[in-house]
Backbone:
């Protein structure tokens, strides 16, 4: 992929940013203006509907009170009033219901026989009329609403006080008063405009258009269903006072409706009228923004290119040569003070870097060499370590991937007849792993020499390593204690590779008992002690994951299967030759591929209490050379361990 100049990249990116900014501001302005005009339209429609609603309600109230007044005048002419008389008046005046209530609020006569003797105080709707008895009012009109005894019937009631101390209640349905106030409705609609071209449509409860504003150029739809105007209102989805869009008489419009006195009042205003201001505002402001953004683009581009981009390009060329290893490159950009100072700083930094690299390289080489010496000196490196002992033979080796590594092994007596041998692998490589390794090695030996079981040793060391482990390092450990008198091997595993046992009869097996958590993984972990019986001639082979995870140039792992084959080839060899043979097979397999991990091995042969010379490869001269020194070491180890280790027994512990 071809690279572009920074000026071209900056130009295109700046243009994209300018266009995005312009599009965003324009879109934001559009959204804001749309919400504003929609909100304004809703307020305008709502205000007009409320005015019409109040006019209709006032006309309805007046009409119903007038009817109720006539009925009361007729009733005042009679001393005894019966339900039949009320039924006759209801038919005469075309009302739905007439009730006569005494001063106690009890219905004494009604057009509905089932209402007789009903206490008006017992119902929510009927109790409103008690103001005519208790509140001192002379007349009261209740709004149009469903009646309490049948929600399917909507009715409007009016009450006027009567000479008996009670009152007369008259109710009529929508059909009654809508017919009576139809002329008033038409007058209200005919004389009202919303904005310049908006209008009102009144429909009855069946959505039949009762009245509308129309001109000679538009056919009147009075008497038709509201759908004929283009408005469809789904009451489940569109609620009262909720503005929505519809195409009314072929004109896209904003619509809002309310219910009033059994009527549907629909207010309509064309979208073009409402959105005219929005379109004008967005167009005007957008044009101004476009000119401003164009000016900003050219101004910013020219300034940045002239002052910054060109000089950065020159500096980058010099830095590119420096980063490729040419520390003799000199940056020389001095068009202004800032770039001159930057050039001087870069040149000074390169000079300092050259000095630091030389000093650091020499210091690191010396420190790593010293660290490697310390690390190797901390582990037994003379084999055989105890030439006078004929009951076992041991050999170990460690090949680090770096100058220092995180693997380690160890072995020591914890009594005259008990020897501890272990292998471990610390997470990570280099100096941190080596330091963590030294701490883990010291703790393991300290606790093992107290005579604890191997499971308790691992548990105690785990607690110690978990403290202040801010680096989050951990170590895998396999640790075993062998009773040289009986051949019983007690061991515990903290997340390490299972060892291989080579039986004297040539059989090979792997100790695949359940492993515990790695040390320093988390506090409070318990470990289990396992036991296995070794017979004279048996070999325990320990190794780290650097053995099985060694890779060749094709990134193929050495693996357990090749390890078994290499171990099998070492049957009958000394423990030293066994380890050297496995390492040789790994080297052949890797084919010169870089070593990725430390390779550490330990082989232990149990020869029995009456075993022969532990190392058949050792000469008599070598035995005599180490005999005296190791007898002293053995005596010292026994004395240190007798007080605590002779009575120690390994047991299975959680």
Residues:
């Amino acid at each position: 992929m071809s690279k572009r100049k920074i000026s071209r990249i900056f130009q295109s990116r700046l243009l994209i940013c300018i266009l995005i900014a312009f599009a965003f501001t324009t879109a934001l302005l559009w959204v804001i203006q749309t919400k504003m005009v929609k909100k304004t339209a809703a307020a305008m429609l709502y205000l007009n509907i409320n005015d019409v609603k109040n006019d209709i309600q006032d006309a309805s109230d007046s009409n119903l009170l007038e009817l109720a007044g006539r009925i009361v005048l007729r009733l005042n002419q009679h001393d005894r009033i019966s339900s039949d008389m009320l039924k006759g008046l209801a038919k005469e005046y075309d009302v739905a219901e007439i009730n006569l209530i005494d001063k106690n609020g009890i219905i004494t006569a009604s057009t509905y026989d089932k209402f007789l003797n009903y206490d008006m105080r017992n119902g929510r709707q009927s109790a409103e009329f008690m103001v005519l008895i208790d509140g001192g009012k002379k007349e009261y009109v209740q709004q149009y609403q469903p009646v309490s005894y049948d929600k399917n019937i909507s009715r409007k009631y009016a009450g006027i006080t009567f000479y008996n101390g009670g009152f007369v209640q008259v109710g009529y349905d929508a059909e009654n008063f809508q017919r009576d106030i139809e002329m008033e409705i038409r007058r209200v609609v005919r004389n009202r405009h919303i904005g310049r071209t908006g209008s009102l449509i009144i429909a009855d409860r069946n959505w039949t258009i009762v009245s509308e504003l129309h001109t000679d150029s538009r056919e009147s739809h009075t008497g038709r269903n509201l759908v004929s105007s283009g408005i469809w209102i789904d009451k489940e989805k569109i609620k009262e006072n909720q503005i929505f869009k519809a195409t009314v008489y072929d004109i896209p419009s904003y619509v809002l409706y309310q219910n009033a006195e059994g009527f549907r009042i629909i207010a309509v205003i064309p979208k073009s009228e409402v959105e005219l201001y929005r379109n004008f505002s967005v167009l005007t402001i957008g044009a101004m923004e476009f000119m401003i953004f164009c000016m900003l683009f050219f101004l910013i581009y020219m300034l940045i290119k002239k002052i910054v981009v060109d000089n950065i390009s020159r500096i980058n060329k010099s830095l590119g040569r420096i980063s490729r290893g040419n520390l003799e490159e000199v940056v020389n950009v001095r068009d202004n003070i800032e770039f001159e100072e930057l050039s001087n700083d870069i040149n000074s930094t390169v000079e300092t870097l050259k000095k630091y690299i030389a000093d650091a390289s020499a210091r690191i080489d010396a420190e790593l060499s010293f660290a490697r010496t310390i690390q190797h000196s901390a582990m037994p490196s003379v084999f055989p370590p105890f030439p006078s002992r004929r009951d076992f033979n041991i050999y170990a080796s460690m090949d680090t991937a770096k100058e220092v590594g995180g693997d380690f092994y160890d072995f020591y007596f914890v009594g005259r007849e008990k020897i501890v041998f272990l292998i471990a692998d610390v997470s990570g490589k280099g100096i941190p792993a080596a330091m963590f390794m030294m701490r883990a090695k010291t703790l393991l030996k300290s606790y093992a020499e107290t005579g604890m079981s191997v499971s308790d040793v691992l548990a105690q060391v785990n607690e110690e390593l978990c403290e202040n482990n801010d680096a989050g390092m951990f170590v895998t450990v396999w640790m075993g204690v062998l009773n040289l008198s009986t051949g019983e091997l007690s061991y515990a595993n903290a997340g390490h590779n299972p060892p291989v046992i080579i039986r004297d009869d040539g059989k090979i097996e792997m100790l695949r008992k359940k492993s515990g958590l790695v040390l320093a993984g988390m506090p409070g972990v318990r470990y289990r002690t396992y036991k296995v019986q070794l017979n004279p001639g048996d070999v325990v082979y320990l190794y780290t994951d650097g053995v099985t995870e060694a890779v060749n140039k094709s990134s193929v792992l050495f693996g357990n299967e090749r390890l078994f084959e290499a171990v099998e080839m070492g049957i009958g060899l000394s423990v030293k030759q066994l380890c050297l043979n496995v390492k040789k097979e790994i080297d052949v397999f890797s084919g010169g591929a870089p070593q990725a991990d430390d390779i550490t091995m330990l082989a232990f042969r149990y020869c029995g209490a009456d075993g022969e010379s532990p190392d058949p490869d050792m000469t008599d001269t070598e035995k005599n050379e180490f005999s005296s020194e190791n007898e002293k070491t053995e005596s010292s180890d026994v004395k240190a361990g007798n007080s605590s280790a002779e009575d120690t027994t390994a047991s299975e512990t959680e």
Observations:
- Residues 6-75 form the longest helix (70 residues).
- The first strand starts at residue 97 and ends at 101.
